[in-house]
Design brief:
alpha/beta; 52% helix; binds thymidine-5'-phosphate
Amino acid sequence: MNDTKRGKFIVFEGLDGSGKTTQMKLLAKFLESKGEPCYTTHEPTDSPFGALLKSCLTGRVDADERAIAALFASDRLDHILNGVNGIKKKLEEGVNVFCDRYYFSSFAYNGEFVPFEWVVELNRPAREILRPDLTVFIDLPSDESMKRVSRRGETERYETAEKQAKIRERFYSAFKRFPDEKVAIVTSEEDKKMTQAKIREEILPLFGL
Ligand code: TMP
């Protein structure tokens, strides 16, 4: 009989430049130091699905928005289910998985180009197979998001202030659309340590810490 405790699945969402990647890694490092095995991952993934998506996002490959939305959903299903380093496999091995973006990003970003409910349908299998134990939304005003993104250099197609504002609104609509999802909203502070402290308040109780 397999008595390994299933790992926790925690997702980080936010606008571009919200600091979710940094915050997620800080948290995983902290939990590792407390003896919790952690695996950090992201979407789009580094798989062939993800590589194709990245080419679509930068405009190197020209694809229809419906195809892109479906590709995000495919990348996600492969991310959950693949037998090498799939999220489900990791969780069953007792590893905690921290994922930078998941289906709420599809609702918020791809809902710009294709009907929202269509994106919901595309992501129904992922929601049925694997829901996060918690989604942490790192909130940031859209003008601040743009400031941070423009400091980074290369901008992708979503990266204008108006688009970021709409994406933020769609994140909130999606949280309302799925009241059964566990979501913690944390404001991104200038001081990374303060943001991290707020995130820990939300997450550590899940680990009995
Ligand atoms: P990143 O900047 O966090 O690496 O994400 C890449 C871009 O992909 C970002 O602009 C958001 C977008 N995206 C979608 O449009 N749909 C999705 O389902 C995901 C996961 C990301």
